[in-house]
Amino acid sequence: MPSFVLIPVYIALMITPLVLSFGQDLPARGLRNDLASGLALVAFTILLVEFVLSGRFRVISRRIGSDVSMRWHQLLARGAIVLAVAHPFLYSAPYAPARPWDPTRAETLLMRADYLLAGTLALALLVPFVLTAIYRDQLSYRYETWRRMHGIGAGLIVGLVAVHALIGGRYSAQGPLAAYWVALLAIAAASLLFVYALKPLSQLRHRYRVASLERIAERTWEVVLEPDGGEAMTFRAGQFVWLNIGHSPFSLDENPFSIATAPGDRPRIGFLIKEVGDFTRSLGAVEPATHAYIDGPHGHLTIDGRQADGIALIAGGVGLAPLMSIARQMRHDGDSRPVVLVYGNRTAEQIAYRAELDDMSRAMDMRVEHVLSEPPEGWSGRTGMIDEPQLAAIFGGRPDPRWLYVLCGPPGMLRAAENALRGLGVAPNRILSERFVYD
Ligand SMILES: Cc1cc2nc3c(=O)[nH]c(=O)nc-3n(C[C@H](O)[C@H](O)[C@H](O)COP(=O)(O)OP(=O)(O)OC[C@H]3O[C@@H](n4cnc5c(N)ncnc54)[C@H](O)[C@@H]3O)c2cc1C
Predict the structure, then answer these.
(1) Number of neighbouring beta carbons within 10 Å of residue 200
(2) Is the pTM of this model over 0.70?
(3) For ligand 1, atom 43, which residue shows the shortest CA distance?
(4) Region 208-298: CATH code
C-alpha cells in the first residue's frame, strides 16, 4: 500500500461519522447545534485514531516514517482539543429533561447526570492531558513516567467520551454510528493490546544479549547485541528499533535507537548511543551478556528501492548511526555508486568511527567531509555549521539532482540542512530525513 493511500483512509475515517449521522434522517435542529455535534464526532474519531498513529505499526512507520506519524499524532491532538472544547459551547438548544413531544430531541439536549458528567470530565482531563504532552520537556517527570501517565490518561479520556457518546449522543447512541464507535474503540483497544501484550510476548521468544559495549567517542557508546539463541531480526539499512536492555519486554523502559550496523553484519546488531538522560547515561554500568529485547524494525530512512546515481549522507552528531548502517551495507554489497558523507560535530572528540570512515573512503568511492563547529588547533577539515554555504562548497556549488540526500540528526540541524539543499535546487523527493525526536 503506497503512503499516499493513508491520507484518504484518514479522511474517510473522519467523514464516516458525519455521513452516518446524516443517514439517520433525524429532524433538523439548526445549523449551530448540528455543527456542535459534528465537531464532537470528528474530535472523537481523531482521539480514537491517535491510538493507531502512536501505536508503532510498521505498516505506517515504514511508509511515512515514525517521526512524521508522531508529528501527525501531535498536530491532530491539538486539532481534537480545539474541536472538543468548542463543541459544548456551540449548542444553542437547552439541556432539558426529555419532552414527550420531542422524542428525537430536536429542541433539547439530553440532561442526564451520567452523560453530562462523563463529557465534562473528559473535557476537563483532555486539556491538561494535551498540555502536559506539549510541554513535557519542561516537566520534571522521567520519560517513562510521563508515557505511563499519557497512556492511562488516553484510556480514561476515551472511556469517558465513549460513555458520553454512546449514552447520550443524539446521533452516536444508536444505529450504525454506535456500531462505528464500537468498531473504532475495538481497534484502539486492539492496538494497545498489540503494543503492550502481543509484541512483548513475541519479543520473549527473540531475546538478545549484550555482546559488547564500548565508549567510542565523547559521551558516545557503541552497544552490540547478538541473539540469545534464534535468529537476528532482519531489517533494512537506516531503520531503527525500540531497545530495551535489562528489563522485561513488558516494561516501558525502552528507547528508540537507529541500528548502526549493516544488515550484512547480522546476527550482530549494533547501536551508536549518545548520553543524554537517565537510560543513556547508565549504559556504562551495563554488564556484558545482559539480556535485551528489540521491537522493530521501524522507519523509512532507507535507500533500498529508491533510484539514485549517488548517495549523500548528512549526519549531525549521533545522527551518524543510521547513515553508518547505509554506508556499511553499500560497502558490504560492493555498491559502486559515489557516496559523500558530511559529518558534523561540535568537537573532534565527538567524532565516532573515524578510523573506519577513513578506511571506507579508501575502499569505496566515498568522500568523508568532517565539519566541526569548535575545531581544535591545527584542524585541517571543514569548520562551522552544516548550512547552505557549507553544502554548496562540499557539492561543488550545485548538488546533483539525481542523487539521494539522506539526513539524520538533531531537529535544528535537519531543518537547516533540508532548507539549504532545497535552496541549492534539490527536489524534496530526493531528500530523506529522520529526526531523533519521537514525542
Ligand atoms: C527514530 C529515532 C532514532 C534514534 N536513534 C538514536 C541513535 O541511534 N542514537 C542515539 O544516541 N539516540 C537516538 N535517538 C534518541 C534517543 O532515543 C534518546 O536520546 C533516548 O531515548 C534518550 O533516553 P534517556 O532515557 O537517556 O534520556 P531522557 O532524559 O529520558 O530523554 C531525553 C529525551 O529523549 C527522548 N526519549 C526518551 N525516552 C524515550 C522513549 N522511550 N521513547 C521516545 N523518546 C524518548 C525524549 O524526547 C526525551 O525528552 C533516536 C530517537 C529516535 C526517535
Answers:
(1) 17
(2) yes
(3) 438
(4) 2.40.30.10
